[in-house]
Specification:
The protein has five helices and 58 strands. The protein is mostly beta strands and 754 residues long. Strands 2, 5, 6, 9, 10 and 11 form a six-stranded mixed beta sheet that branches. A hairpin with a 2-residue loop joins strand 9 and strand 10. The longest helix is centred in the last third of the chain and has 50 residues. The chain is flat, with a radius of gyration of 62 Å.
Length: 754
């Protein structure tokens, strides 16, 4: 890299210009770089040869002695000119300069007569086309209009506005257009100011609203808006998108015209002019679009680089503008053609050159162009080539090992092998672009490499470079070989029971299967050796129903994918229809008629049960009522008949206990006490006292003659009928009808001990 000054580059480039007929024209071009440098000129892409009319000056500029829009032979000096500079390292081309002839057409809009009442607004307009843009001035009664009068507003596009008209404003008006090509006068128009100022109310009205404008940055935009009404309306401006207009470079001309100086791209938008009646919300609006263009300019220039042979060179060129510029690349002044070796990416912003060699040494130019202008930038590629580098590796061979593996072998270079530090194997799918290439490093003593993880049935290209500390050798010859085909992988298989005789085999499509033409489906009863099938299914089918099966046996289902290379491994599943149906359908189908009958029967049973229960409750209540009444009557009779002698308290045993109404001593001394109640009489008096329940519980009343002391009368009773109470002190024992909660059981053999 020789530095910036050594690079071939333009110091001055030709610029757009407007030439005057029969006048000389000079197009400037100045270049710097390593000499010798040759400069040539082109017009519309055709080389310009020196002639009497056009020739190149010593400083490289082009001189046109007499510019003519149309020559006698039909040719024209108008067109696009560019300057080319070339030295030992390459060639560069300047931006294109557009040269046009100065012209002026006739007026196509002339001012018109107007009659306006005093206090009103008058507007005159004239339009004319020319190059450069004509300057239009106004005259009143053949004298220039006094622009110091604030009621007179002159707009750049040939408009004259007069507000607050007075009688002295009446007169004859015309405009004068001037440029380097000519001077022209428009027709005259008379202004008549009539009557006095009217006081009649008039709604606001916009006479002329803003026009759509397309301008370039740094120019000046004038948006016209003139309104009338009584009272005089107030004119205001806004943007339709709500963004503020700003204040810098903004000026109001006359009573409502908006002027924006030094335009930028941010000024683009739709502008709204509003005429408002003072003190009210009554308003009228008009709008116009302003488009501001920006010529292309570079955000990032391409940089000159030096790279070793066999490596990759990348140039980056980023430009901006409005509208967004298009980027074109040149190589030594010629349009760059892309290939597998040369790639453009990112909307042509990035130029990549792969595996560079000495033929790629050149000056590469980036040209950015839009409707507002163009620009260019250049950079040089230097390919480094050291003496004594190894020659390319020899006898490169590639052998297919499997569907995913290829073995590449080679022989040592013929020359300069002592400094070799290793080899690099370059691998790429044959159908892929070069930027998809990848490399594998190999040690200097290894002359073969096993390349794995390749795709089946795919062609790959291989070449080798030998590397030293000073650079790489040229690439070896390229060899191309294809991997073997591969059978598909095992598909995933799921079995779903549809009913007692049908199952559905279902599988999922997957890229892991690889290339396959379809599927083969087999099934059999597990106790049989013969399969049913194969059922051939296309590759887009993912389910198949197997029907007419026997629910009492277990089936084996097998699925595999196949292609032109053979059958892949199969996936096997077992299924039992009966067990699966029992699991998936735990409840039998509903017998709706039977269930309805059962429901009716159950309802009837419930009703009958309720009736029986109510009847039982009624009978129980009646039984209790009548039983209690009979018990009261019985108690009354017993009290009248039973007479029990009193036992003195002193004769009672202090520790006497009563067991169910009778003491053990009473039973032992029954014959000695004399008087004893006859059992028959007791049973007659208390017919209900000895119930069947008491008999069941073991309470026994003995109907026997008086016993001696060696005869024992035994009463048996369960433990829950056994109670111990203190002997009562009442003169008479309590009757069995006593309501005392601690009443003892009835004494069946009372005695008088005293």
């Amino acid at each position: 890299d020789y530095g910036r000054s050594s690079e071939l580059a333009f110091v001055v480039e030709p610029s757009d210009d407007i030439a005057v007929q029969e006048q000389p024209l000079i197009l400037y071009c100045q270049v710097e770089g390593i000499q010798p440098i040759t400069i040539t000129w082109r017009k519309n892409g055709v080389m310009i040869m020196d002639s009497e009319n056009a020739f190149m000056l010593a400083n490289g500029s082009l001189y046109v002695s007499r510019f003519q829009r149309v020559r006698g032979d039909g040719s024209s000096d108008e067109g696009e000119y560019d300057c080319m500079a070339q030295n030992h390292y390459g060639l560069v081309v300047s931006r294109k300069a557009k040269i046009q002839a100065a012209t002026m057409s006739d007026f196509h809009i002339h001012p018109q007569n107007a009659v306006v009442e005093e206090g009103g607004v008058a507007r005159f307009q004239c339009q004319i086309h020319g190059l450069p843009e004509p300057v239009i001035l106004w005259q009143k009664n053949r004298m220039p209009v006094n622009t110091d009068n604030e009621r007179y507003t002159l707009l750049p596009k040939g408009v004259l506005q007069i507000t607050g008209l007075r009688v002295e404003d009446s007169g004859i008006f015309h405009c004068v257009a001037t440029n380097i090509a000519n001077v022209k006068f428009s027709r005259e128009a008379r202004l008549t100011v009539s009557g006095s100022h009217s006081t009649v109310y008039k709604d606001p009205m916009i006479l002329v609203g803003p026009e759509n404008l397309t301008l370039t940055v740094h120019q000046t935009a004038v948006l016209e808006c003139i309104a009338t009404g009584n009272p005089r309306p107030i004119v205001s401006w806004s943007r339709l998108d709500g963004r503020p207009i700003g204040v810098e470079g903004i000026q109001v001309l006359g009573t409502g015209n908006l002027m924006i100086s030094d335009l930028t791209v941010q000024h683009s938008g739709i502008y709204v002019c509003a005429a408002n009646k003072p003190g009210t919300r009554v308003r009228r609006t008009a709008q116009g679009r302003l488009v501001v263009q920006a010529p292309a300019e570079f955000v990032q220039h391409p940089q000159s680089i030096s790279r070793p042979a066999g490596t990759t060179a990348i140039f980056t060129c980023v430009a901006q503008g409005e509208p967004p510029p298009q980027i074109t690349w040149l190589r030594n002044g010629q349009i760059l053609e892309t290939s597998d070796h040369i790639k453009l990416k990112n909307n042509n912003s990035t130029l990549s050159i792969y595996g560079i060699n000495q033929a790629d040494e050149a000056i590469y130019q980036c040209i950015a162009e839009n409707s507002a202008g163009s620009t260019q930038a250049s950079a040089r590629l230097t390919v480094l080539w050291a003496d004594g580098l190894p020659s390319p590796p020899q006898s490169v061979k590639a052998e297919t090992i499997s569907a995913t593996t290829i073995q590449v072998s080679w022989k040592e270079p013929l020359q300069n092998t002592k400094e070799i530090i290793g080899y690099v194997l370059h691998i790429r799918k044959a159908a892929d672009p070069e930027e998809m290439e990848y490399q594998e490093a190999v040690s200097k003593n290894t002359f073969q490499q096993l390349v794995t993880d390749l795709e089946p049935s795919t062609s790959y290209s291989f070449y080798i470079k030998a590397y030293t500390s000073r650079g790489a050798s040229k690439p070896s010859e390229v060899t191309v070989v294809s991997t073997l085909g591969e059978v598909p992988a095992m598909p995933s298989l799921f079995i779903k029971v549809i009913n007692s005789t049908t199952v559905q085999a279902k599988w999922e499509p997957s890229i892991k299967l690889g290339q396959h033409e379809g599927f083969k489906l087999y099934y059999r009863k597990v106790h049989l050796s013969q399969y049913t099938g194969p059922v051939l299914l296309p590759s887009n089918v993912t389910a198949y129903n197997i029907s007419r099966l026997d629910a009492s046996v277990v089936y084996e289902v097998k699925l595999l994918a196949y292609n032109q290379h053979g059958d892949g491994n199969s996936t096997v599943r077992f299924v039992s229809l009966r067990e699966t149906m029992e699991r998936t359908v735990p409840n039998p189908p509903c017998d709706c008629l039977k269930d309805e009958q059962n429901n009716k029967t159950s309802t009837t049973g419930i009703i009958i049960g309720i009736h029986i229960g109510v009847t039982c409750i009624i009978f129980c209540v009646l039984f209790l009522m009548f039983g209690y009444r009979g018990r009261l009557l019985m108690c009354k009779n017993v009290q009248e008949q039973l007479s029990t002698p009193q036992i003195p308290r002193s004769q009672q045993s202090a520790t006497g206990l009563v067991l169910n109404g009778a003491s053990r001593r009473d039973r032992d001394d029954r014959d000695m006490n004399g008087k004893q109640l006859d059992m028959n009489e007791l049973e007659r008096l208390f017919p209900a006292s000895l119930t069947q329940e008491q008999q069941d519980k073991g309470i026994t009343l003995a109907h026997s003659p008086p016993a001696t002391h060696n005869v024992t009368q035994i009463s048996t009773f369960p433990l829950d009928e056994f109670s111990i109470i203190e002997e009562q002190t009442d003169p008479l024992p309590k009757s069995p009808c006593s309501s005392s909660p601690t009443a003892p059981a009835l004494d069946h053999s009372p005695t008088n001990e005293g």
